[in-house]
UniProtKB/TrEMBL annotation:
Cell location: Chromosome, Centromere, Kinetochore
Keywords: Cell cycle, Cell division, Centromere, Chromosome, Kinetochore, Mitosis
Designated name of the protein: Protein zwilch
Keyword Signal among record annotations: no
PANTHER family xrefs: PROTEIN ZWILCH HOMOLOG (PTHR15995:SF1)
Amino acid sequence: MSDLANVYELFRNKFEDYDFQYYYPPSYISTLTENKDKIILAFKKNHDVSMDRNQVRMKTSPDGDYDNMSDNFDVTGSPLKDTSNITEEDLSKELIEQCVVNCWTPEEEAYGPEATDRARSVLQNFINLECRMGRGSIWALCCGTDTDRTVLLQLSMNAASNYQHQFTRGIVRFVGIQGCNNITMPQLIETHQQRAGEGMKLNAKIHIQQWYKLCPQITVRLSWHTMAESGTFAIERNARVRLSQHFPVNNGAFSRNSSAEYFWQQLQRLALIREKIMDIRANREVGYARQDFGAEGEMDLEYVKQKVYNILSTFLAVKPVTYNASSIVNMVHQVQQRNLTDVMERLYEALTLCSSYDDLKATIDYIFHLSTHSNIVNVPTNGTRFAQLILAMIQDRLAIPSLNGSEPYELLLECGFSKLINDYRTIFSESGVYELEFEKLFQSQVMNTRKSRYATGSSPKTEATKHSSLLFQPAISDESRVREKSILVSNFDEDEVKFRLNRLAQVHLLLEHLLLLESVLNIPSIYGRVCELYLSRKPYSYGEIYNRETDLLEFDVDEFMLLRKVDNLPPCGRRVSLTSTNLLQKLETVFYQNAQPILPERFYPHFQCEDTESKHVFWCYEYDRMERL
């Protein structure tokens, strides 16, 4: 854990000609050090960076994703319509191309390098200061024009050390571009021993990590230890396997090329209904405006009424539904195309054809009148309030309620949630992937004592709404069967609805991850673990998904079949760590090699690709870290 706040203030006050940042390290530093604690970075600010968040950019560094470190934040509104000018063809092409271009994030192009002598000077001047030290690392980004081609300098300190001014120093050099097959373990050992000198003893255990790209979005990291005498880059059968998958969310545009697009559109519809409710409760006229639920065509009121009449009054021969669980993607298609047999699901689909608030309210009123005065053949059985209302009127226990305000949309929203939950549950269970327990997922919400102003506003219905849960209790006496003059149907909780949207969005992103895993790996034995790990995470807010570029899924895999998939693949990255020690100090050398440069190329035009006969080349970096014991 770093603690450099005081040091950061000192840097800003003493060295005003330099630019500093106290934050989590850039991707290239965390890749080399495998440490994600906050650091102080000295750099030259680049004011020419275009921070266009609409670009489809994916960070492909083998290590962690800092885009996923942000906490949940909510975005007001429901961005259901994509305003991007990117076509489907351009999108898919750009995803394929840009997934393999940059190892750095767009934000990191704002960090320009300083001259190496200037960077050394600021670190040495800090060492000469008499000040209270902190705990952590200071890094300086260098231009690499010196003879050693230095790109990074490091100075680490430990406040708990007996020697206040005892520092650990580090340096990162760019070695050049070499053919993958031209790099050998004896060559790396010799380089390390030359740096260590004769007075230090080489640790026989060497740590090796190699990355393999199965597709632009999926990377597998293998890590193992080998002995110096017999060390090679051949994969050990007992290697630890870690899989990283960057699913391209692309600011919500991912659904355009997805097999599960239909279900994301259903979720978008629920978000729009929620917005309608919020607008009406806030007395905004837009809540009553023409609606666009994305249904397949909008019909006039008489057509919808006739459809509703047929659903309730026409006998439906229900055939048992059988699913062929051949694959997840096949199950997605089957659930999407299934014939609806549940009465409330069929009513929900019919009600979404209404083109306006008035038509929706009139159609629900018509359903209530049918329930009271007609012979209903198909009786609702699911547990939504809408179904319970209809059942109560069929049994002649309740008078026809008068709907006001947002109540028509509230009934519609509850039915929509029920249908989409059933769809997702069916996909996961029938494909044999996982049993979704939505009751537990929805209970994971942290209760907030501050109530929404929309849920506890000044509406005359507020006090009575508190008792609405008592309306559907089973009758236990003759008196309770007396017809009521009116009924309250409003039970909207803004926070609860928001959390359900977030959870369902999380379930959908999980489904997208599984579809991608199935198309590339097709190892069903790992799907259950993927579901458990992903659903244990705190979900993004629904609105935040429209501000994300990628979603990272990363987990350890105990699966021998994955090793077989990389047997004939060249590695796309490698990290080899060697150490030597004596009584006074310890030297660690990290040889890091990547098929792509890890530093923004615009700052290092002199590191151009050199001629090589090998088809597979590595950009090679060496990181030496000297620590006093």
